[in-house]
Amino acid sequence: MNIVIEHNPSSIRLSDLGVMSWPKWSCQPGKYALVFEERETCYLVKGKVKVYSKGSSDFVEFGAGDLVTIPKGLSCTWDVSLFVDKHYKFDPPTSP
């Protein structure tokens, strides 16, 4: 699935990335079908998620305090077990 999870990055790392200035997104527990048109980097302030790749029972799990990079083109289901509050940033689109 190529999701990269950095558990509990330092406050210096988060500051260097400018995470707290990124937009925020939140969601209630539930299942969400998502397609990532661009690579996303996000930092979970709250929550817990299992991400299943489309058509697969394999999953990765991450939660509060994790810095996560999701690859461009991933089609997946987010199974949110605890309310999610995250900062996120998409890579700028690349020219074809």
From TrEMBL:
Span of domain (S)-ureidoglycine aminohydrolase cupin: 15-88
Record InterPro entries: RmlC-like_jellyroll, RmlC_Cupin_sf, UGlyAH_Cupin_dom
Pfam families: Cupin_3
Protein name listed in UniProt: (S)-ureidoglycine aminohydrolase cupin domain-containing protein
Organism of derivation: Eutrema salsugineum
